[in-house]
Amino acid sequence: MSLAEVSHVTFGYRAAPVLRDVSFAIGAGELVALCGPNGAGKSTLLRLLLGLHAPSAGQVTLAGAPLSTLSRRQIARRAALLPQDAPADVPLSVREAVSLGRLPHLGRLQPETAADADAVARALAATDTTALAERPVTELSGGERHRVHLARALAQEAPLLLLDEPIAGLDIAHQLAAMDLLRVTASEGRSVVVALHDLALAARRCDRVLLLAGGTLAADARPAEVFTRETLARVFGVEADVRMDPTGRPIVDILETIGRTP
Amino acid sequence: MSSATAGPDTRAAPDNASPKPTPSRRSRWRSRSRLRVVTSFALVLLAAGVAVVVGLLVGPAPISVSETVGALARRLAGKVNPLDWRETVVVGVRLPRVLVGFVAGGALAVAGTALQGLFRNPLAEPGVLGISSGASLGAVLAIYFHLAGRAVWLLPACAFAGAALDAVLVFAIAARHGRGQVFTATLLLVGVALMSLNVSLTTFVLAISLASYNVGREVMYWLLGGLEGRTWDHLLLGAPAVLVGTAVIAAHARDLDALLLGEVSAQSVGVDVPRVRLRLVLASALVVGAAVAVAGPIAFVGLLVPHVLRLAMGAPHGALVPLSFFGGGVFLVIADVVARTVSADLPVGVVTAAVGAPLFLALLMRRRVGVAGA
Question: Which tens digits make up the pLDDT trace of B56-76?
Fold first, then answer.
């Protein structure tokens, strides 16, 4: 059984359709990049997977159960979402903020257990934020704050992790560390769907690419099949140099916007 | 589409991925944070005790500590002496006044805490949804139509009805528009519009009631907010609603914490935001409606007390909500003592604003005040 299944989903805000007839399934242990130009519907698709929007046609299931039959709490135990625009002014300590990831596992008045504290400690360690644990989130740098929000999503320990541009605000070392962390998370049997603008990183680090273009799923395959010169030109309007490394992974080098000369 | 290609990239896990913090470090943090909570509760409860005692001792009639204690003890023992005027003053006048003030102040502070957290806005307070102005309108109408004199519960009931009607209207109008952030913003805008409407209608009622000196004076006096002449009936009318509403808000403390992460993250961790928002606004309307109904519109408690406590405590609502209740109660009881001491005719609402506004400004200048607190 797949962790998530999107079948023939169509969705639009008011009249304008954003996604048309999108279908795919996510199995266990996958690291999936969600790519596409601005406005292609990446964030919308992640929100549909969490049931924050209801599709106008089609259905989303998590671990076999249609979203419409699940409570918000039940969804939260199956999937965690890190939104793109997580706020900066969170008036909590880092540990308090990350601990909120344990909410779906706790009763309304039930105190945290040792297992919850361990999950929080693991998430802090994994995101290199253990040393920040007692600092207020408001005092952190932008990159540190991103890692705290990522730690919150990890602490949730849901089988499916949905991340919307988690590395956009990070320096290059932390970008790579974050991608490694997602790699490790996937190898532990959880699945990760990560919206990425950095195509080179997506090509290099992910098992599978979902390419959204014009509201439809333009490709769903391994990076080597998706990131071709032709596809990059057609979907992103860029001229790219694509080579294969010895292991058969594409190395994508974006050169120029098509129609412009340097 | 497989994980088989993972090979080359599955390097050794980054060195930051595995070490766990030592248990001693964790438990040290926990005890420190628990210590802060315990200390805060101890201080607030102590202050509550002092405020109630002072509230019982201060007044125009000279009644000593021992006479006050004696009167309370006799009443607790069930031995009522209706001929002892001191007993009547302590048990029939001062005690209900102190308790009504405590419950109303606590209610306003709890509602302020809930609304500031819910809207992630430091300016949110019991007035923002128009709830308290709706209650005022109801009360003023009750006085104008001479309902207030017929039974002691009629004025509070009308005030409460005004608050409830207002809460329902705000939600009904806002619900016709978007969801998520848009809905929250709409809720605030509709609240502001209704507040203006309530205030203008209240002013209108005040203007026409001035035709009769007595009615005009009564309306004016009520609008200034006061605890003059509050009885056990007022306490029995207000307290149950305040306690129920406060319990509902306290039960949603973790949801309020999660909302600090933003609405989408809150939903990600399993908070049903639309439902929680509805419950919190209705619970706030309940406690504010009850507070205004029995104590009149009292400014600044709902804004100031949550801010001061956030600065002292940080933001987690599990401690903040009960602390706000006691903190708001202490603040209003002490303000009432000040009002009674300065002049027998000074309404407590004047004192809360006169003390609260400069205090709030001082806080603002000392450090950034916000939902962000610390």
Answer: 888 777 888 888 888 888 888
Whether residues B370 and A89 touch (CB distance < 8 A) is answered with yes
In a domain, A252, yes or no: yes
Range of the domain at A93: 4-257
Whether the model pTM is above 0.90 = no
Q: Which residue of A has its CA nearest to B269?
A: A76
Contact A61, A27 (CB under 8 A): no
So what's the ipTM on this one?
0.91
Query: Residue B186's pLDDT band (boundaries 50, 70, 90)?
Result: confident
Burial class (CB in 10 A: 0-12, 13-18, 19+), B82: exposed
Question: Amino acid identity, residue B243?
Answer: L
Is the pLDDT at A260 greater than 80, yes or no? no
Parallel, antiparallel, or unpaired for β A250-257 and A238-244?
antiparallel
Number of domains observed in the structure of chain A: 1
If you count residue pairs, one on A and one on B, with CB atoms under 8 Å apart, how many are there? 168
The encoded tokens of residue B14 equal 């980054």
**Does CATH place domain B35-60+93-366 in 1.10.10.1800?**
no
Instruction: Name which of B20, B120, B314 is nearest A121 (Cβ-Cβ).
Output: B20
- CATH number (domain holding residue A99): 3.40.50.300
pLDDT the model gives residue A74: 95
Residue A16: predicted pLDDT: 79
Q: Flag whether A262 is in a domain.
A: no
CA distance A76 to chain B (A): 5
Subunit contact A208:B18, Cβ cutoff 8 A: no
| CB spacing of B2 vs A222 below 8 angstroms | yes
Query: What digits encode the pLDDT tens for the residues A198-213?
Result: 999 999 899 999 999 9
**Hey, which residues does A212 pair with through a beta bridge?**
A217
Domain boundaries, chain B: 35-60+93-366
**CB–CB of B264 and A52 under 8 A?**
yes
Pick among A92, A122, A179 to test the B interface (most B CBs inside 10 A): A92
Q: Give the integer Cα–Cα distance in Å for A216 and B249.
A: 44
